Model the fold of this input.
Amino acid sequence: MPRYTAPLDDMRFAFYDMLGGDTLLAGLPGGEAIGRELIDAVINEAARFNEQVLAPLNQRGDQEGCRFDKDTASVHTPDGFRQAYAQYVEGGWAGLTAPEAYGGQGLPHAIGVLVKEMIDSANLAWGTYPLLSQGAVDALLAHGEDWQRDVFLKPLVEGRWTGTMCLTEPQAGSDLGLLKTRAEPQEDGSYRIAGTKIFITAGEHDLTDNIVHLVLARLPDAPAGSRGISMFIVPKFRVDRAGAMGQRNAVSAGAIEHKMGLKGSATCVMNFDGAEGFLIGKPHKGLTAMFTMMNAARLAVGIQGLGLIERAFQNSLDYCRERLQMRALSGAVAPDRPADPIIVHPDVRRMLLTQRAFAEGGRALVLHTALQADIEERASDESQRQRASEVLGFLIPICKALLTEAAVECTYHALQTYGGHGYIAEHGMEQFARDARITTLYEGTTGIQALDLLGRKVMQLNGAGLRHVLDDIAGFCQRYATDEAMGALVGPLAVHAKTWGEITQELGRRAAKNPDEIGAAATDYLFYSGYIVLAWIWARSVTALPDSSLGESARQAKRDTAHFYFQRILPRTHTHLAAMRSGLDGIPAMS
Amino acid sequence: MPRYTAPLDDMRFAFYDMLGGDTLLAGLPGGEAIGRELIDAVINEAARFNEQVLAPLNQRGDQEGCRFDKDTASVHTPDGFRQAYAQYVEGGWAGLTAPEAYGGQGLPHAIGVLVKEMIDSANLAWGTYPLLSQGAVDALLAHGEDWQRDVFLKPLVEGRWTGTMCLTEPQAGSDLGLLKTRAEPQEDGSYRIAGTKIFITAGEHDLTDNIVHLVLARLPDAPAGSRGISMFIVPKFRVDRAGAMGQRNAVSAGAIEHKMGLKGSATCVMNFDGAEGFLIGKPHKGLTAMFTMMNAARLAVGIQGLGLIERAFQNSLDYCRERLQMRALSGAVAPDRPADPIIVHPDVRRMLLTQRAFAEGGRALVLHTALQADIEERASDESQRQRASEVLGFLIPICKALLTEAAVECTYHALQTYGGHGYIAEHGMEQFARDARITTLYEGTTGIQALDLLGRKVMQLNGAGLRHVLDDIAGFCQRYATDEAMGALVGPLAVHAKTWGEITQELGRRAAKNPDEIGAAATDYLFYSGYIVLAWIWARSVTALPDSSLGESARQAKRDTAHFYFQRILPRTHTHLAAMRSGLDGIPAMS
Done:
């Protein structure tokens, strides 16, 4: 069974030493109580829970999977999931970042991210059950009526109920404008919801007494397309305005999907047969409400990618240190043993360092991103909030797509370092690869993230987020321009940032002539941008080392990984740049 | 269930129009009977068998998997596999390329490759049962004593028995020098084999009456390491020198592995408990005999990659033509329908064209490679045989690693075009991705292929194979230097070929100083080489169009795919070149 040890040292390095997250949060209104002592207490406790409770259930959950009972339309989660969930609720983890007014602990998102990474490393499938409660809480806070908040928020925050996002229908995936589920207004102000939703994560399960579905549907007078979508709250068991739970609502699971991985997570077909629901937000403005949930969900999926990378890397590194095969080409390194550990082979280290670069770099990137969410939410200065919001909007599709694609790549490398043993269920590496494969699909495929980044965040919003990031990089490069030790990193970083600005301008000119140029460049633009952002993150990591709590060997590993990143990963930008420059012409029409 | 239609038109284009394979084979000694009529008859019949018999069993085989009966140490293959195998034998497919003297049809390897691609598309797992018989036949032909050939070859060629390669042990994977299985000589000239082998494909099954294991083991006086390995033939049921089958031999399956994919293929732990075996070839020269089998097996695994790419592509293309989501950014293409087919989106076409580029380019590459094997085997001119042998040795690690890594990538793209539906077992795309994942591991990982290419074929053998390929490319470029229509392809190809020669020289100089430089560059060198070879293949495809049997729309698709390849895939060389140039310095030591 693969091991998991929470990477607390690196979390502290990234959060405290590199990003100054503790100081930053303490300086925001309401942050007085926040400091290293509190954060250390949270992550130490989270490490215990995840290492001891969730991690050991991961492989069993995959092997056992969820069972669907057709007669009762109920889902049995794998053995141990229910007890683990009870411990999770008991420990107060469900409401970690939720408002204190509703029973939460009101901690910043960035601290929640540290805990969430551990959950996703320990047991990605289990982590999908509480995952979407966050989105439901966000949507209710932003758009719910007072009574809806009173009734639904507390049990969600406490974890007694969980939430879902019911968006997809068989004919409506990336294109929600095509959805058909209907909502008929009733005289009492409620609605009857009718339709079928698919791919509903945690749509049905046995962990909690109730499940709160947030459902996109059309009112009778809805305009066609995405401007005619409204959002409704539909509980599994009906709830009155005083919060009392009543009869079963007319919503039930019709089946669960048989999937490549994430088998411990119930992916449900949900049938709404005139279920009682309540409108959230304004009629026909459901997509706005949904995007409130979606931003958080997309960052969350990026963190799933990170969690998988970290755990796969830990096991891959162990294996490469222990597995003896062949001698180093330059001569035996361990002549007293039958062969050298495979970590002596440069090609094996290439695979390990790629994983480390994405694990540690990805961690700092999502923490930096989450800190923007905290600034956006808490800062007293409007312009500071605005800037953070623009940076956040820009970085979210990068976090989501880059780290999930990196998870596919890194779980590939981890498996590959095990050779044939990686393909066998026993060692758990193939599960990570299967689990990772969903992350580039749900909450918007990589292609959808790329369109969001280039089409919306850069082109439609005039690239405010990009400008801030480029300013930050320019400031960083200027600050370390004369630092000899940083020259090998700052030089290439500055060159890349300049080209990034230029290619963005060029794509803007092309898109003005033919909007399809955006589609032709978007995915390459996302990766190109992501690799430059990660280069900045890695350069920043190195500058944070002298004043850090890391020991010398960990510092050397950081410097080495940064060097590797610049030598071996950052050159991927060459290929993406060439692809962008070839434009739509390089992708002929097909029919 | 995913469909499969044998790509006969493209096979004919590649084999006849582009490579002139029919003329070439007919011109070799013994090739008088070979022509398009014969080849068409073979591939038409193969298409029927694969489309109608093997393809429909593929998904069921994955779901059912193999069952191991501990009490009898027997393996039950999935429902239908046994009947399909009987039809395969009945149809004479087992001996297609085997010598007529032993009951085969004596057809060239290149024709066998056309059939093998279909089997691997239709049902990769099923295809692993007859797969290694070929290796056993090759080893017996090259190294077996007369009586061994008389006794074992005929049933193998007829398909009444199957073969295995028993190499790997728990502590000996890439490094066979570590293997421990022992062989004790007996007075009657036989040997007692004792030890445990793992990951034995088709080590036990219920398709045939007997199984012939080729086993690597150590004689009592064997030197340590890889110079002390001998090869033995160990049948499941003992066979006397007259060919009569007797008692069960002391070899049996101890378990089958639970794997990520390829579930219809029995991957066995094989226990040899003093089993009767016979030495093949000379004592301590087992690795030489093994490499006889290994070359064919590596090309075969490259073809497995190709087969998966082709089938995934077919289904992905269908889906992208049918699935309606969103409008083209430049305006509705199908305004009368609820949305446009997703093939209108450039990013979707990018994923489709990548698959097509590897499917059709990969097909021409393996056929070109297999023709070298036929020339090596059949040509009357010694220098022609020598040249073909050198080209073959150079191209085999490229075919193996490039096409299996492309299979991982292309099954990724195919799945991705299905969105969430790709992750669901029902559509079959996730099975292709799981099945593909073994191909970069077995018969030598990608890293091992890369070391074989750069360390052995280029550095140790003075790059004879590379020189021939570079000569062929230079000749091609010269021939089309003034052809205006080919300028966009020939120009970049010539530049790449020049740089390829230069970086090879540079790596040679580095390796002379530190052999670890080979390990640091090998994988990038393999991909770099592979992409240039495929560019040459794609440019050749375009030159073959005017005189081809393809219709105009197929010709346009070829030209478009070649253009896409040069614009969007070939630029990957930039990244690999930068990585090679950074050298060992870019991959710091780890411990």
